[in-house]
Amino acid sequence: MFQNSKKKQEDNQTVDKNLRMMSLSGAILIALFIYTMIKSDSAIEGASYYIGLGFLFVLMMLTFVLQKYKDKIRAKIPKNKFQQEMETAVNATNDTNNNSQIASSIIEPILSNVTFKDVAGISSIKEELEEVVDFLNNPKKYQKYNVSLPKGVLLVGPPGVGKTLIAKAVAGEADVPFFYQSGASFVHIYVGMGAKRVKELFTIAKAKAPSIIFIDEIDAVGKSRGVGGNDEREATLNELLTQMDGFDSSSGVMVIAATNKIEVLDEALLRAGRFDRRVFLKNPSLEDRIEILKLYLKNHKYEFDLNKLAKDTSGFSSSAIATLINESLLNMIKRSCNILNESDISLAKQKIKHGKQQITILSEDQKDILATYQAGKAFITQSKVNLLDKGIAQIDLIYPSKKELECKIKAYLAGSVALEVIKDEQYLVFEEEITEAYKIAEDMCKKYKMSSDKDKLIVRLKDQLKTDILSNIDEVKRIKNILLEDETVVF
What we know:
Layout: H1 2-39, H2 47-68, H3 70-76, H4 81-105, E1 110-111, H5 126-137, H6 139-143, E2 152-156, H7 163-174, E3 177-182, H8 193-207, E4 211-216, H9 219-222, H10 231-245, E5 253-259, H11 267-270, E6 277-280, H12 286-297, E7 301-303, H13 306-312, H14 318-334, E8 339-341, H15 342-354, H16 364-381, E9 385-386, H17 402-422, H18 431-446, H19 454-471, H20 473-486, E10 488-489
Parallel strand pairs: 2-5, 2-6, 3-4, 4-5, 7-8
Antiparallel strand pairs: 1-3, 9-10
Helix pairs in contact: 1-2, 1-4, 5-7, 8-10, 12-13, 12-14, 14-15, 16-17, 16-20, 17-18, 17-19, 18-19
């Protein structure tokens, strides 16, 4: 490309040189013409004399014409096909590069048309989000009492739960400019470019305050420093930390970020004064899925039990439900019909289950196993349990006793023991819970010296769990049925 561009430039220089030579020749001829007129005498006779004068006059006029219209003449000089094609390619490449540079240097906000009405299944976190909206709309209400909301709100949850949609809904409710950036867009191969982009983003957001900056997949740039050895990423993270320190709540800029890997984020991002408010999102519960289905089906006719479909989609994220309905509608269109029915849903499930989406669809037997597992856990802990929840409610034990640690182990083992007692079979449901139970037991033996043998400790606690569950097996089964019906049990 560059060689062809250079060739074009050389051709233009050659044309200009030729035109200058012609102009110089014309000037010399004009001088000779004037000299001849002055020095001529009456002896000069014949047609050749007048022909020569005419020729000199034509050359003089041609010189003026060439000098005046040299650019147009150069443009009309024919190029061969190869030169034309290469010149067109060079110009197109230059235009593309220029446009790309201009586009990358401009960070434009959008005005979101999404509101809370367009997002279903967020009842548990809506209050916190409404507080953010109220602060953006009525900052003086809080500043009057020297109350400031967090500079940053971190949305934490698995893929597909609607983190981006929720951020857009907050911006839409507050009716403020919304700056969307992906964490990966800050990580450049050129040192300093990511930090520069972060600085530009915050500068423009402050100029358009009140506004919301949303950074999706912030773990791409916010990983703990020293992990991975990426100097450019660390420089970008440092700039992000600096910018978040450089404005206060009165600036009217709210930073919302999303991640599904909070454990890899740098501690400096999570400390007070930055992302110090965290909103944890989970896959939707039964009630949430009913609301989501109603939202996606509100403009469509259907002939199936919506509540049954909500129960059949245990484990689905919000985006998975949206995919299911979209695939069902495509099947409906193929049938040349305008009413969605059970066969459309069934075909869509099969496509999702065996296709690219690979969404886990629980069978009735699998749901029964999971419900039994969670029922055992709920009975032992006497705390709220959701059918799809992993882990147990964490309680900070400042000065843990041996009994408290044993209760924690029993909470992690309760589900597996309940399955062994009720179904007379051992199952592996949540591997990490078994791992955590054995880890606590090992710490009690090696670190805390509260027991001498880890395996004997686990066996003793399992025997206690079996006795408790056998003595109250009807209650455990009742809890299991509640989980199968409502997916949540509260004590």
